[in-house]
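QA checklist item 7 of 12: single-chain prediction sanity check.
[x] sequence parsed
[x] length recorded as 309
[x] structure emitted
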Amino acid sequence: MQRAKGITGIIGAILTVALLAGWLPSMALAQDQGAPPPFFGPAQLDHMVSRIALYPDPLLAQILAAATYPDQIPDAAGWSNEHHYLSGEALANAITEDQLPWDPSVQALLPFPSVLETMASDMNWTADLGNAFLAQRDDVMDAVQRMRQRAREYGYLRSNGQVIVSGGPYIEIRPVNPAFMIVPYYDPLVVFARPRPGFFAGGAIRFGYGVTLGVGFRPWGWGYDRFEWGRHEVFINDRPWGREWENRRGYVQPYPEVHRWEGERHVEGHRLIERDARERRDAREGRQREEDHGRDHQRDHEREDDHRL
């Protein structure tokens, strides 16, 4: 009996170490089908959203949606890091060609290695954020607004050359260029606290790293993500995000360009990318023909002038 208990204890210890080390993330983060929804108080939610509350609305929407699939985040972070040298259509093509099995909301973050790394490096936070968004969406959105109000009140959050900050009653943060998404860097311990006298609040939020998200990324919802803060609604790919705690196992967000089979998701983006490339090529060729025609016309005029002389 003592030996059996000893073996059981050893196995339990091994599993515990594996979970803490991240070797078994799907087991550690699995959302039990019969488990009651979690509940987080306002102070907990304020702290939870503080590190992302000042992100532009489209990026924030994708992060919240992706956090509801926490078991997919570590692998996505690894893929994103391995392909950090790709950008634009080359990155969109790589995502499509690899037929990645993750939810489109997770795939949408692949152009942002730093964001996925932040989520993967603190899986407890990511899982809690996703669970809160599933079970208490209204409360999560209210927490974001509280933190934004606080940062604006203290003078940290303001419009600049990268983002437009709305006046209210609900604070929206939109990129100046919708196709260029900026990732802000800030210290939550600074921007949500009253500044000390003489402190320059305007420099506390930095905007350094940005990603161009052109037409090739539309299949993942980019360009069509937003919040309706007053109604507590989130739109991903111009569709209301309807995944909640009760339907989390069966709900699938509609993506017009996403095809699904055998339980996997494959983003069928080539058609859209090729169409866009074809249109740009035709436009270039059209401009080239006009320029050639203009040069020919100019040369004809010059020859006529020479002949008259």
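[x] summary fact logged: The CA atoms of residues 150 and 192 lie 6 Å apart.
[ ] second reviewer sign-off
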